Amino acid sequence: MKVILTEDVGGLGEIGETVTVKPGYARNFLIPRGKALEMEAKNAKQVKHQMLQIEAKKKKQKAESQAVAERIRELSVVFQLKVNQAGRVFGSIGSKDVADKLGELGFVTDRRKVFLTEPLKKVGTHFVKIRLHGEVDVQLKVSIEATEATKEDEDKAVKTAKSQIEEAASEAA
Description:
By secondary structure, this protein is α+β, with helices and mostly antiparallel strands. 40% of the residues lie in helices and 26% in strands.
């Protein structure tokens, strides 16, 4: 069944796209929730009118995303990680941490729109890609500062590592 998406649907497409889906998915999920319109000859006039509205909505979302991108581009977010005497870092910064920090600053974003190849574990400055819209990406400057780890932090890390090793050994046996 062919439908036109009236809003972005993860894993399926973006607003305004015409996609083919199974009839049950369209009738039971997409259409009742207002996420899509059915493409039929009998409602072609309605679809044409809706497409004009969808295009306007798409342009508005893109313009808003570009404005937010300009504000995010100027930001610099700072995280602190504990480091022991030998320079070993305890913990890491993941996409959820970056999304939460942006939320604290008033930029609501989903962690799935923060793209990290791997969690940040090194002290210094990193750039993280954030997708605000299908066509709008922005690089966020993330600085990681070192704070001195206490003896308790080091002992806790050792205990955690030992328990992980014991757990892996028991699963292998």
